[in-house]
Amino acid sequence: MQGQMMDMPLLISQLLKHADRYHGDTEIVSRLVNGDIHRYTYRDAHRRTRQFANALRKLGVTPGQRLGTLAWNTHRHFEAYFGIAGIGAISHTINPRLFPEQIAYIINHAENKLLFVDESFVPLVEQLASQLPTVEKVIILTDKTDFETSLENWASYETLISEESDQFEWPTFDEREASSLCYTSGTTGNPKGVLYSHRSTLIHTYTAAMPDALNVSARDVVMPVVPMFHVNAWGLPYICSMVGAKLVFPGPAMDGKSLCDLALAESVTLSAGVPTIWAGVDAYLLDNKIKLPDLNRIIIGGSACPSSMIRSFEVNHNIEVAHAWGMTELSPLGTFNSFKAKHSELDNEAKLAFKENQGRVLFGIDMKITDEAGEDLPWDGKTFGDLLVRGPNVLTNYYKQTDPLLIEDQEQNGWFMTGDVATINPDGYMQITDRSKDVIKSGGEWISSIDIENAAVSHPEIIEAGVIAIPHPKWDERPLLVVVKKADSHITKEAILEFFIGKIAKWWIPDDVVFVDEIPHTATGKILKTKLREDFANYQAE
User: Which residue among 163, 197, 231 closes a domain?
Assistant: First the structure.
């Protein structure tokens, strides 16, 4: 016997309709590419998005077609988020920080019909235009009508939508239909596409907004520093639309001063970003002795957050830090570090230490760790293992790939191999110790490169650190530490190695330290270990 509840599909368009009807006067603020500040409301956004939907229909867009965006976090990108998915097409957010050949590859692989491009990315599209046979038209996200470009078939976004009616009825269709497409950063081989559904997006939105997750409410002012081309900005545009939080989009200005100025001016209460972004904010606040009185919490993910950064924000700036973990393949949020009731008894130092782990799973995600033979490992907080996940927010296959991706257990349940190595403690809190391809196996034992990196950057004279394995005749592999030190620092290799004593296991201490001017990064700001290994392929420790 089935229940007697209304059978209404979970669709992304419902979020914006809800925002218009129930908190339509709440502001959305954007810093534009030219630096100007734009203000309007959810009601305005919904009206313009309906105009945008009519424009898409006039351009011949049909359900299932992929439309690409190369854009910063602004109100126009927000409208594209909802308008493209709302008519049943697929919003393909493209990371402009990828290499040009990777960008061309994913546009062609996705067979994008249209590209929506911020002014600052027009030169990139001009460079690639001859390599993009499926792209019929480029829409520049501007109000200019005389924009100088070599592109032959382009239109101004504002001109495009101004000609359209704001009367539009969002179509209804199966919630399992695809809504959006995002490609991995492609550190090895070509980037791979992850195709989300309306259903998975709505489930992720509900889950991520919960009190033990992002905990977003109508009383919040949220600044998504996570780029909207980066796995749908952790769902923040959707979450804020659902709950009625004020949105503040920072545009392309991601330096510490720009972010702090905007957060202060708009009374931002919550923000989310990767550690490299927050390092700039932390330094700016300290150097200029500035406080952000309204900003009470930040969410850090994308890569492991050093304990020194957590401590600085909480102690120096009185801003609570929440550690999170996720992947493109997970929609993206997988775990979130929030305390259980029993953790309230911990003292301040213990609480700060506890915040270093990536947290516990959110509803909709199941996880486990296994050994090399695929056998489940204990949740004791000490045993390292390969991290596997499953759930309605987890992909089954990469876009246009049909080869089996999931690993089946004895109960024939499918699990996705994340590529991360982790521990899980008895309370279910997970801590990433490495990527499986980056783990260092010395004398048959695993060494966590992440733990060594976090210990290194806690030194006040070290800006950034990366750890890779180098061959060893006896131990098979040993860790090499690559360091960027502060410009005025005279720190030595010996001083760094001594600094590790008591902070990590003695046998984990690197065999050598190399000083460099900069460390290579992926398009999403993570340390590019493949390039480090290439650069030091023939390195011999002294």
Answer: 197
Tens-place pLDDT, residues 430-483: 998 877 778 787 876 778 888 899 899 999 999 999 999 888 888 888 999 999
268 falls within a domain: no
Q: Is 329 a catalytic residue?
A: yes
446 carries an active-site annotation: yes
Q: Which residue of the set 184, 205, 269, 328 is catalytic?
A: 184
What pLDDT is stored for residue 148 in this prediction? 92
Instruction: Tell me, yes or no, if 184 is annotated catalytic.
Output: yes
Question: Which residue range(s) make up the domain with 453?
Answer: 440-535
* CATH number of domain containing 28: 3.40.50.12780
How many separate domains does the chain show? 2
Instruction: Tell me, yes or no, whether 227 lies in a domain.
Output: no
Q: Could you give the CA distance from residue 85 to residue 180 in angstroms, rounded to a whole number?
A: 7
Asked, for residue 93, whether it belongs to a domain, the answer is: yes
Is pTM beyond 0.90? Reply is no
Checking if the pLDDT of 411 tops 70, the result is no
pLDDT in tens, 349-394: 999 999 999 999 998 899 999 998 899 999 999 998 999 999 999 9
User: Three-state SS across 148-210?
Assistant: CCCCCCEEEHHHHHHCCCCCCCCCCCCCCCEEEEEECCCCCCCCCEEEEEHHHHHHHHHHHCC
